[in-house]
């Protein structure tokens, strides 16, 4: 029927070492795809899936410069010709496309809208599907939680503002897909998080949220020393010739 469009092709993928979700979205007619937060350790799986589904990878999208895993975006660019997308506030000079609030990233006839959601890091962005049916929140909004705010320019007041004004303003039935989950959850909805998020749901005030965040005592992510500099280089050698980190480094 005219005006009806087929559902976007969607896969939620998982990397167990860092409990990271990678998301594949594609236009089922034009066969163009994006990967959100692809991980170095699972690059062969992701390339095989793209090939099996007969998809052309046009963009890799980072929700932020990760501290807990190394991106595969630079290697995917080399092998598949995709373009690496990072927030203009993320400080990653390796990116092909720097994005900010309101930018749209096309794959076929579909697109993702960029919403700046800083607070976990300066350069955190969320990606909203064109029909508002899904939002990919990175570490800004997790299922019943949020990203930490104690390193990488973290700021709980900024994070509270980001979540409440950029994400909680989406429809209640928008499905929430975070960058991680450590309890076996896979998705949520905006309505669910507004009601039940332990840190900023149920009408919690910004001061309550700040107190919660300041009371957390978290260990650093296992891969932080390697991951942040590597991700600023899209996970591959820097332009000045600094070598790619060996693939067998233990986290
Ligand atoms: Fe993060």
Detailed description of the structure:
This protein is an alpha/beta fold. The chain is built from six helices and 14 strands. Strands 1-2-3-4-5-6 form a six-stranded mixed β-sheet, with helices on one face. It has a six-stranded mixed β-sheet with strand order 7-8-9-10-13-14. A hairpin with a 5-residue loop joins strand 2 and strand 3 (32-36). It is globular, with a radius of gyration of 17 Å. Mean pLDDT is 92; it is low at 238-251. Fe (ii) ion binds next to loops.
What quaternary form is this? single chain
Q: Distance N terminus to C terminus? A: 51 Å
Strands ordered across the widest β-sheet? 1-2-3-4-5-6
> What best-fitting shape do the alpha-carbon axes yield?
globular
Q: Given the helix and strand composition, which structural class is it?
A: alpha/beta
What is the count of DSSP helices, taking H or I runs of 4+ residues?
A: 6
Biggest β-sheet, characterized?
6 strands, mixed
Walk me through the topology:
Layout: E1 9-15, E2 20-26, E3 32-36, H1 43-52, E4 56-61, H2 73-80, E5 83-87, E6 97-99, E7 104-107, E8 110-116, E9 125-129, E10 134-138, E11 141-142, E12 145-146, H3 156-167, E13 175-178, E14 188-189, H4 190-196, H5 206-215, H6 224-232
Parallel strand pairs: 3-4, 4-5, 5-6, 10-13
Antiparallel strand pairs: 1-2, 2-3, 7-8, 8-9, 9-10, 11-12, 13-14
Helix pairs in contact: 3-5
The structure holds fe (ii) ion (FE2).
């Amino acid at each position: 029927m005219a005006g009806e469009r087929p559902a976007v092709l969607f896969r939620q993928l998982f990397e167990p070492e860092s409990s990271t979700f990678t998301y594949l979205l594609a236009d089922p007619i034009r066969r163009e795809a994006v990967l959100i937060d692809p991980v170095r350790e699972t690059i062969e799986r992701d390339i095989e899936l793209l090939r099996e589904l007969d998809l052309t990878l046009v963009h890799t999208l980072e929700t932020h410069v990760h501290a807990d895993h190394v991106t595969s975006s630079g290697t995917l660019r080399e092998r598949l010709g995709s373009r690496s997308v990072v927030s203009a506030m993320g400080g990653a000079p390796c990116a092909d496309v720097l994005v900010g609030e309101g930018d749209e990233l096309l794959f076929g006839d579909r697109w993702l809208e960029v919403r700046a959601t800083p607070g976990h890091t300066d350069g955190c962005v969320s990606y909203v599907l064109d029909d508002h049916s899904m939002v990919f929140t990175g570490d800004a909004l997790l299922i019943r939680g949020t990203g930490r705010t104690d390193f990488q320019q973290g700021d709980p007041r900024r994070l509270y503002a980001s979540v409440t004004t950029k994400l909680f303003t989406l429809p209640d039935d928008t499905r929430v897909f975070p960058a991680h989950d450590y309890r076996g959850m896979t998705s949520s909805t905006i309505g669910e998080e507004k009601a039940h998020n332990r840190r900023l749901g149920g009408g919690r005030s910004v001061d309550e949220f700040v107190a919660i965040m300041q009371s957390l005592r978290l260990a650093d992510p296992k891969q932080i020393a390697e991951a942040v500099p590597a991700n600023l280089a899209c996970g591959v050698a820097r332009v000045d010739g600094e070598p790619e980190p060996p693939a067998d480094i233990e986290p």
